[in-house]
């Protein structure tokens, strides 16, 4: 009974890996297609020669969407990993003393009480924009909920009988952390990072859509959609529909995978 | 009596905590503003930057206190905020408190209706889906909720705009009222006409999490012994869901709705941007893009207060609902 979700997750992971590989390798085989302007083919609707249509400067939308998705993937992945790392270190720090615990809890409460997007705006403003600023901003806003889970998990496992026994055998603190606590936390971290991932992608897109994060010349999904806003009332629907659809499919695929994995573990 | 005492003590401790958190929010956001590479004098001057001599710049910096150490600036700012003076917004050329008041009034209609709609629809859908786990209705509703939970907020708003405003022409494409008409002269019906799409998209997105949460609670209830007992007595599935299930599932939904005010506000930021609705969200984005520091700081504090009160209500509801938490037995 326990095998089916694992099998499903494995199959899903295989397909997902293939798609991700295709997406990430697109940087090499796309070349400069996302930025290549064709002035004879501006604002062309989707057709056989322009698969998803072209934008106001005659750039191919399919290539720009792919490039944007690959950028979103990298930003999302880095932000999720960084966020998990912050969550893990602060949750472990909170275990050291009650003062530190209170401080970490206060920091978590503080960051959770400001709406994510406003905090993102503040951090992006403080860092002055750029891809790195977006990654850091998304990571800094997304660690608190995971840190809360990890802290609760650590609290419960710290007083577990097997830890007490290990301590009774005279094992050192470092040994207990390395051999008992970390292995217990690892699956939580993995699932946590996977759950953070789609959130991070959505927030990256939102931030670039608002025009805060990246350079407007960079083909990110948010930039493409902000661009499309200007042509929406003119009826150039493909500019708005396809990049968003690509993002939705990517987020959905990762989200479902995270859910499957959580069930399987 | 004893319960009252405990509740008061609990409330007092929570309010103290809330004040502490707000103070931290103030410190963190002020610190972030100080970190920014954008020069406050440049931001204040805007395009006139080139016409000002270095001596004048130094004078402005001195007058506004920009040359003082960060801690002095912070305590100075905090004292002003506590006395109700939030500063001057240079992009709207108005006191910050007025900007926030005007904009929030407009956003409140959007936020509140979307919140209520999301809560009601989310609860109904969640209960409908969860009362018969695995049915086609359940699959359909959960599938729908999963998809909307992964949808970028602003993209959904763009699609709605494209379909209803551009293609079908049923709703206006932007703003809170027709162009060239004063805000006071716009009648309520026109105002509602402009609000329909923003409310619908914001509600649709908020609904997803409430639906999934309510569904999970409902599924758990339908598997419980209470439900089994009712089944054994011959009650119909609808009866059980309607008479017992709702009580189990509605409180978590309401609690979640209060706890997710931050996401609602974040969503309104994007949706106001797409529909060019002149609310607080749009002002936030403008303040961030055009480095209006006093406005941005005030909005961060204001929304933190808003979200914290929502969290407080959510916690309070849990306490009222679950006597185990109230007695601290958890």
Automatic annotation (TrEMBL), chain A:
Keyword Transport found: yes
Protein name: Peptide ABC transporter permease
Entry superkingdom: Bacteria
Membrane topology: Multi-pass membrane protein
Similarity-based family: Belongs to the binding-protein-dependent transport system permease family.
Domain ABC transmembrane type-1 positions: 69-258
SUPFAM superfamilies xref list: MetI-like
Transmembrane annotation, as ranges: 7-30, 71-96, 235-254
Keywords of this entry: Cell membrane, Membrane, Transmembrane, Transmembrane helix, Transport
InterPro entries listed in its UniProt record: BP-dependent_transpt_permease (IPR050366), MetI-like (IPR000515), MetI-like_sf (IPR035906)
UniProt organism field: Vreelandella lutescens
Protein localization: Cell membrane
């Amino acid at each position: 009974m326990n095998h089916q979700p694992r099998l499903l997750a494995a199959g899903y992971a295989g397909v997902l890996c293939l798609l991700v590989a295709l997406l990430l390798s697109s940087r090499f085989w796309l070349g400069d297609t996302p930025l290549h302007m064709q002035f004879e083919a501006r604002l062309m609707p989707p057709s056989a020669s322009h698969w998803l249509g072209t934008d106001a400067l005659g750039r191919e939308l399919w290539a720009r969407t792919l490039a944007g998705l690959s950028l979103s993937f990298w930003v999302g992945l880095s932000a999720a990993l960084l966020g998990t790392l912050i969550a893990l270190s602060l949750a472990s720090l909170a275990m050291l003393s009650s003062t530190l615990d209170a401080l970490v809890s206060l920091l978590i409460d503080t960051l959770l009480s400001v709406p994510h997007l406003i905090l993102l705006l503040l951090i992006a403003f403080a860092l002055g924009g750029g891809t790195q600023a977006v990654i850091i901003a998304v990571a800094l806003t997304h660690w608190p909920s995971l840190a809360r889970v990890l802290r609760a998990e650590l609290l419960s496992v710290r007083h577990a009988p097997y830890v007490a026994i290990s301590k009774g055998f005279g094992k050192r603190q470092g040994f207990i952390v390395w051999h008992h606590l970390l292995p217990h936390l690892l699956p939580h971290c993995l699932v946590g990072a996977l759950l953070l991932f789609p959130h991070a992608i959505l927030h990256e897109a939102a931030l670039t859509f608002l025009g805060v994060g990246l350079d407007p010349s960079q083909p990110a999904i948010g930039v493409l959609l902000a661009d499309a806003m200007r042509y929406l009332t003119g009826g150039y629907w493909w500019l708005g529909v396809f990049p968003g659809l690509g993002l939705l499919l990517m987020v959905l695929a990762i989200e479902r995978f995270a859910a499957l994995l959580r069930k399987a573990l | 009596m004893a319960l009252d005492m405990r509740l008061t003590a609990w409330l007092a401790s929570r309010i103290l905590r809330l004040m502490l958190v707000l103070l931290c929010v103030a410190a963190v956001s002020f610190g972030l503003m100080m970190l920014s590479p954008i020069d406050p004098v440049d931001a204040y001057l805007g395009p006139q930057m080139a016409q000002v001599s270095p001596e004048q710049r130094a004078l402005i910096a001195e007058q506004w206190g920009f040359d003082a150490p960060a801690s002095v600036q912070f305590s100075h700012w905090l004292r002003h905020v506590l006395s109700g003076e939030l500063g001057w917004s240079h992009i709207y050329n108005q006191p910050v408190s007025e900007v926030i008041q005007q904009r929030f009034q407009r956003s409140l209609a959007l936020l509140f209706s979307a919140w209520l709609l999301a809560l009601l629809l989310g609860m109904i859908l969640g209960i409908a889906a969860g009362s018969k786990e695995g049915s086609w209705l359940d699959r359909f509703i959960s599938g729908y909720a999963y998809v909307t939970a992964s949808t970028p907020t602003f993209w959904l708003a763009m699609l709605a705009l494209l379909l209803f405003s551009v293609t079908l022409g049923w709703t206006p494409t932007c703003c809170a009222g027709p162009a060239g008409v004063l805000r006071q002269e716009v009648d309520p019906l026109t105002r509602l006409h402009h609000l329909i799409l923003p409310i619908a998209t914001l509600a649709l997105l908020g609904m997803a999490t409430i639906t999934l949460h309510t569904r999970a609670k409902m599924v758990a209830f339908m598997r419980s012994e209470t439900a089994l007992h009712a089944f054994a007595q011959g009650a119909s599935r609808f009866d059980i869901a309607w008479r017992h299930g709702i009580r189990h599932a509605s409180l978590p939904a309401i609690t979640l709705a209060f706890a997710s005010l931050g996401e609602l506000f974040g969503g309104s930021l994007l949706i106001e941007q797409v529909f060019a609705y002149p609310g607080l969200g749009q002002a936030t984005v403008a303040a961030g893009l055009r480095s209006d520091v006093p406005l941005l700081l005030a909005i961060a504090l204001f929304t933190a207060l808003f979200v914290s009160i929502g969290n407080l209500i959510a916690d309070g509801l849990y306490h009222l609902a679950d006597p185990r938490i109230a007695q601290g037995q958890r």
